[in-house]
Amino acid sequence: MDRRGLLAVVLAALLMATACSGSDAASPPAKQPSSSPTTSPRFERYVALGDSYSAGPLIPTTDLAAGCARSDHNYPSLVARALRVSTFVDVTCSGARTADLAASQPGFADATIPPQLHALDRRTDLVTLGIGGNDLDLFGTVITTCTRLRASDPTGSPCARQLAAQGPDLQAATATIADHVTTALRAVHRGAPKATEVLVGYLRLAPDRGTCPALPLAVGDYAEGRQIAVSLDRALRRAAHRTGTRYVDMYTASRGHDICSDRPWVNGKETLRDKALAYHPLAAGMRADAARVLAVLRR
Known about the structure:
This protein is α/β, with parallel strands linked by helices. It has nine helices and nine strands.
């Protein structure tokens, strides 16, 4: 099962539970990124595009019924509030691939999601985009394949061995993703030619060293998980450079906040209905994303 399929199964079950049990439990309000009217640029119409690392599935409060599992405390929402934009359009959607920016996406709860690029127009003056990790099932390799293979050789590197023997070739895969994201950024520019564009990278999952039960990889496969994440970050950076897009390097920013850390920005293997989907950003991660997006915009 790929990452999109895993998301569908988990979120469909949660949607049924929500229908039976009512609204989510109350949570304390998240601390908002600070905003200074004298230093913040002024934007009138902000459109947020991206996948689940932008949508924030299960961070309260999440709209499960609309088909994208989009939180009102994801980083686009926090950025919009901090900048006090006049119009905010959030079309981020869990499970999205770069192809879903220009084509309809099958959502959860039998929803069909319109192409995200349709939200853009010539009035749009700010666009954030977080995309690429679902292309070629790159994240799914770590989340499903590598964790599944752990049982076959817990102290070895079963996932790295399988990828070396059967693929996908990481260098080729990330080169393809760089091309996909480059195409996506150029399409954003055509749809919103006057907009400031910001490409937002992914938070890290694996620690620089050590292991933990919340990220159940074989001991030797933590290095493989890190290599996949680094390669994806480089692919996104390449796409941003090609298109003159501002890049927010969240892989570097999240050092020390991996799944195994004492202060994680990404949830571990257990889906927590009132906090985050498994292997997805926690509210702290979204606040960190928002703070760094705002810092890039103020430069």
